[in-house]
Design a protein that fits this description.
Layout lengths: L13 H20 L4 H21 L6 E3 L4 E3 L1 H27 L5 H18 L4 H19 L6 H32 L4 H10 L4 H19 L7 H8 L2 H7 L3 H16 L8 H24 L4 H21 L8 H32 L15 H4 L1 H15 L5 H15 L3 H27 L12 H19 L1 H13 L3
Antiparallel strand pairs: 1-2
Length: about 500
């Protein structure tokens, strides 16, 4: 048996291996230093993630390399998303360090779970097999369940973790069942082989369609699309704000990669006949998500729940771009433009989400959660600079020119129009106007209402500096949108 074993090429998986080894080091360091020197574990985690991003950049050569018996791929899309994922997690750790420390939640297991969740995302991003996608998804999900419940004294956090766990297990089961159906229909778990079988017509159509439905349901859950969105408001509200920031940012890159690998790379079919099936499913879910997300957000008084429903609508816009790349005889460049607009939207959303939650963390302090809209009253009088930063994030999320959110939304809607979905684009624009109401409400509270809290803003220098850079980035990419869009387009052109 061992005579047939071939040692896989470990070089393409160097970032993942480095992060795994560093997680062991963090466990040992935390064991020896304990609670008195928790900053050491925090610094090591940040160094590990920055090192992982650096290795992804160094090993990047523009080539697509398969390893681990064709189950793992290192291509341009994988390297790009891994770097962004690591940077997003580092930003979350810097934003949330003081918040977690003040509440006694910056335990060693917090940093280890963050690293394992990131590792799961990276495995999902580089998956070349249905099995690898599932393994990465479970590693990420199990770590996130633990992070949501890390505040063991909070009944709200425990309840949120239980809901997340039960619904997440159901979604994982649906996805696994769908993958087994696809395996039964095509005879393979490898994404390239499944794509080839579909192209050549060597599959069981009925079994494939059944598997496709379950796979789309699993993807929709991870993206938080209607009607698989029910976990998002409760988890966003119940989890500690730093964990909410984590869930609402980096996993979106992994979910985008999963959608691309499963739907675009594997389940396209000859002339897109299989893709037309999942396109219709995504179209319905995108419209429902945009509609329900924006309407439900209006009724919220808690900013974390508001941002949760906002996330549902934003993922609806992202999926709108993703499904616009699939039309009968569509030109290849138009398809790439649609997929790159979806990637562009994901990057823009993660950047805006980190900033919005970062402002919530800035206003929070020991024994005080700044998670109600009332807490933002008169922020301009307390700190004009950070009120301006929050204004940038809210304007960008609302899609107001000239911020990155406007161009991301414009790119997605343009892709939908080019694909012949002009009525859908009109509906999306109308709901975008609805969404502008609750974003502008936050701006109104900051600039036109009297402060209800006169306490000084206590955020550390690292948090203030990063939040400022985050706001400048959202404004800067809005003034120079072509740079980021060109990067997304080049990434996908070299990966498809």
């Amino acid at each position: 048996m061992l005579n047939n074993f071939v040692m896989p090429d470990l070089y393409p998986a160097a970032p993942e291996i480095f992060l795994l080894l560093m997680s062991f080091l963090v466990i040992l360091v935390d064991l020896f230093f304990g609670a008195t020197h928790r900053w050491v574990s925090a610094m090591l985690t940040v160094v590990a993630l920055l090192g992982t991003a650096a290795i992804s950049l160094v090993t990047f050569d523009g080539q697509s390399v398969l390893t681990f018996s064709g189950m793992f791929i290192d291509d341009v899309l994988a390297d790009f998303l891994k770097i962004l994922t690591c940077l997003a997690v580092v930003m979350m750790l810097v934003y949330g360090r003081a918040y977690m420390a003040e509440r006694g939640l910056d335990k060693g297991e917090f940093y280890v779970l963050v690293m394992y969740a990131t590792l799961g995302m990276m495995v999902m991003i580089s998956a070349a097999s249905l099995l690898t996608i599932y393994l990465g998804l479970e590693l990420m999900s199990l770590s996130l369940y633990g992070l949501v419940a890390i505040d063991r004294d909070s009944t709200r956090a425990t309840e949120a973790a239980m809901k997340y766990f039960v619904l997440g297990a159901l979604a994982s089961g649906l996805l696994l069942y769908g993958m087994s159906m696809i395996y039964g229909a095509t005879g393979s778990l490898e994404i390239s082989t499944v794509a080839q079988a579909l192209y050549q017509g060597q599959m069981e159509p009925a079994l494939l369609m059944l598997g496709l439905v379950f796979v789309v349901c699993g993807i929709a859950f991870k993206l938080g699309l209607v009607p698989f969105h029910m976990w998002i408001p409760d988890v966003y509200h119940g989890a500690p704000t730093a964990v909410t920031m984590f869930i609402g940012s980096a996993p979106k890159f992994a979910a985008f990669a999963m959608a691309m690998r499963l739907l675009v790379y594997a389940l396209m079919g000859r002339d897109g006949e299989v893709a037309l099936q999942w396109q219709q499913m995504l179209l319905i879910m995108a419209v429902l998500s945009i509609g329900l997300g924006n309407l439900a957000a209006i009724a919220q008084t808690n900013i974390k729940r508001m941002l949760a429903y906002s996330a549902i609508s934003h993922m609806g816009y992202m999926v709108l771009g993703l499904m616009s790349g699939v039309v009968g005889q569509i030109e290849p460049f138009t398809a790439i433009n649609a997929y790159s607009s979806a990637l562009y939207y994901t990057v823009a959303y993660v950047l805006m989400s980190l900033g919005a939650f970062g402002t919530v963390l800035l206003l929070s302090r020991a024994g005080y959660e700044a998670e109600n809209l009332e807490d933002f009253k008169g922020l301009n009088k307390r700190s004009p600079w950070f009120a301006a930063m929050m204004l940038i994030f809210m304007f960008s999320m609302a899609g107001i020119p000239f911020f990155v959110g406007f161009f991301a939304k414009f790119a997605v809607l343009l892709a939908a129009i080019k694909a012949g979905y002009t009525p859908v684009a009109v509906i999306a624009v109308m709901f975008s106007l609805v969404g502008a109401f609750y974003y502008l409400r936050v701006v109104k509270l900051m600039y036109f209402d009297a402060p209800v809290d006169s306490a000084p803003i206590e955020g550390g220098l690292d948090l203030r500096l990063l939040l400022s850079l985050n706001g400048i980035a959202v404004a800067g990419f809005g003034l120079m949108p072509d740079s980021l869009m060109a990067l997304c387009t080049t990434t996908l052109m070299r990966s498809l």
